[in-house]
Amino acid sequence: MATPPELELDCITKRFGSNTVLDRLSLTVERGVSFALIGKSGGGKSVALKIMLGLLPWDRGEVRARGMKLTQHISEWRQSIGVLFQGGALFDSLPVWKNVAFAGLRGRERMDARQARSKAEEKLERVGLNASVAGQYPAELSGGMQRRVGIARALFTQPQLLFLDEPTTGLDPVRSEQITTLIADILADSSMTAVTISHDMNFVPRISTQTALLDGGRIVWQGASRSIHEHGHDRLGNFVQGRRDSDLP
Amino acid sequence: MSPDPQSVRHGDRFLLPFRAIGRPVIQICRHVGQLTVFLVTAFRHLLTPPYYPTEFAQCLYTLGFLSLPIVGLTTLFAGGALALQIYTGGIRFNAEAAVPAIVAIGMVRELGPVLCGLMIAGRSGSSIAAELATMRVSDQIDALETLSIAPMDYLVIPRIAAATVAMPILVGIGDIIGILGGYLVGIYRLGIGEVGYLTQSIEFLDRADIVSSLVKGAVFGFIIAACGCYCGMNARHGARGVGIASTSSVALSSTLIIAANFVLTDLFF
Asked: Is B141 part of a structural domain of the chain?
């Protein structure tokens, strides 16, 4: 029997009042694939991500995780994923190591503090931060460092699927490059499936193998990430080159 | 056939007052419904593990211990002012001797719990709402959920439980300090005898007065934390949303405290 895909969105419709944000959106993420969802701001990427994470209910359609309905297996599903939120979403009141080890300290496992700290420091090292930042608070770190801590937190439970929400947004070119290289290395070193939401066209081809363009609540283009700069498709070309759709010939 | 635009405008004008009344009524009903669902969900989470004792202890410290100075100062001055007012009123019909008893009963039955409730609503209720609202708008609550931690268990229950436990203690301390305020004014300003003041204060206080004070404290604590958590968890729209959550929490909890105080007073009457 064939292995079911890691994640499937089947004809998902999501409305906010009279505004249809996702219009029968369908996409499939196969296991081991690094998938990127691109699109302009306000195009529904973040809504799609929240639906994939089970944080937002949808109006129509079905989401399946490893062949099972997401709504019925949300708890198991969340045990197997890691998420890097836009901006990090670190807990301000906790030091860095407790942020990283949060799932271990407060989750089902309830790890011993010493063991959790040691594992957190190991993960911090993996993302290029030394143990000296472990005792600092998120507000004391730069944007790039916060993003690294967010990645370390996402990796803490050794997830099968990693979600990355705009990992390079708001960073200067140097830090953006560092984060891109780090994520590319992490994905290359593991067999993790990854779903990335981004509009950074330099970042996407380096960390993903498949890309889909979301526009008007639907996937309007899907293909290999390395081909996104080839502009074979009008809307993709416009998006990549920063033109409006009204500029279409 | 399309409707005559003139008649549509006329119809709109006719409906205007109904809309002006209907919109807020619908909004109030929606909030009451959402708050009810929120409280039922919180109650369900309260009865089922996991529990977070460290967070509970931390909330108890922040909501309870750190609120002591504000409670102490407020009730001290309120007790003093109450003694002065009762003396001024009482002297008109030679009832100035009733100052200690009325200060004690007034502080314990009414002023202590209500003042503490309103002060804590301003101090801790707004802080709960602002903290949770900031967590909501910066995706920290979503992050909690994806880490398999229920925000209800981790954020809401410890705060509600801590406020419900801490408030009766604060009210009890506030009552004592309020009576002390009245005592200081009575002795040093009004010239009432030291021993007589204390004896009267204690003699006139009934056990039911103390029980009603502490029960009110617990109910007000629950209201403050529940309103703070509800407004914070439902915050939207960035920094503005955090401000709205904080203000709404204080307004809602203060109103509910005054209303609950009437209901409880009537019950204990």
From this structure: yes
Establish whether this prediction's ipTM goes over 0.90: no
Q: What is the domain count for chain B?
A: 1
**How far apart are the C-alpha atoms of A63 and A53, rounded to whole Å?**
10
Choose from A49, A53, A55 for mutation: most chain B CBs within 10 A.
Answer: A55
Q: Is residue B14 part of a domain?
A: no
The reply to whether B267 touches chain A by the CB within 8 Å rule is no
Contact B146 A83 (CB under 8 A): yes
pLDDT digits (tens, 9 = 90+) for A12-61: 999 998 899 999 999 999 988 999 998 888 788 889 999 999 999 999 99
B220 found inside a domain: yes
Tell the CATH superfamily of the A1-80+192-249 domain: P-loop containing nucleotide triphosphate hydrolases (3.40.50.300)
Supply the range of the domain harboring residue B137: 52-267
Model pLDDT for residues A4-21, shown as the tens digit of each residue: 888 999 999 999 988 999
Q: Which residues of chain A from 95 to 124 reach within 8 Å of chain B, CB to CB?
A: 102-103, 106-108
Nearest chain B residue to A150 by CA distance is B143
Tokens read off for B41: 């969900």
Contacts of B180 (CB under 8 A, 6+ apart): B76, B79
Crossing angle for the helix pair B99-106 and B157-188, to the nearest 10 degrees: 170
